[in-house]
Amino acid sequence: LVAQGFSAGDVAVTVSGRAGSQDVGGPYAYTTTAAPITGSAFSGAVSVKADLTITPALLTISTFATPASITQGDAAPTYNIAATGLAAGDSTAALFGLLVAGSTYDAAANNAPGTYAVTLNQTTLTAANYTVRVVNGEFEVVALPVIPVVPAAPAPAAPAAPAPAAPAPVALAAAPVPDDPTPSAPAPSGDRAISTPESPLTVVDGSWALLNLILAVVAAICAFALIISLATGKRRSNEQTGQSDQENKKNGHLWRVLGIVFGVASPVVFALTENIMLKMIIVDQWTILMAVITVLQVTTMIVLRKVRHSRNEVQKAQA
Fold first, then answer.
1. Which of 45, 162, 163, 296 could form a disulfide with 34 if both were Cys (CB 3.0 to 4.6 A apart)?
2. What is the pLDDT of residues 43-63, one digit of tens each?
3. pTM of structure
């Protein structure tokens, strides 16, 4: 309140006033009242009315952690809330009942070291007659100290075994050197057999010849074919009785029997002269005999074919 009109040395005794409301807002009418003043220079005090506007006060809500620094893995600190800027007679009990402070730090999750902010559960705060400002505090998480690994002391080395003493040198007597160092060739002692490397064509005791087996198999197949032909020829002879080619039929039967004998002889000779359990070679001393038997059998079959052809020509001529 301001009092005007005083002279130098004069003192205002009492000046007082009150607005119509104490809440934020306005303008409000404000009335001033002054006590009577006596003096030759004053005629009296006059009450004057004025307008008053009330603006919001600044209320600061701060968060902080106790303690402000912990080690990684420790339990979370205590989170606190403080308010500054309250007017006389006002209380934050109603406001603080709704606020909870916290942070993202979690000891069980083993959060990384660093700085963590302490925040409120509400981001927008209002209070009657106040402008609210929120200041978030923070705390520090310090990394665990690194414990140096002390290497184990190496085991003492075992003492080295002493090296064995070197044997004493032994003097060797010098061998006599003959006058003529060139060795003389041994004198031949009679005839000596010179061995030659073994080959598949060489006749070796305790072996069998592959070519002999092939000739025996060919002869057996031809003999089997002749046996079938002989049985078939006899049946036809019985069916075709009274014809004039009886001589040709007898010749044919004779050559068939002879071919069968050669065909049976070849496997028999192979079985008596060869042992397939021994080492295999290509030819041996029995190969010539086996070849002769096979040639005779082939010759027999060629003659038999000519006899058969001649008989067929006779039958065509008689027909």
1. 45
2. 655 666 667 788 888 889 899
3. 0.37
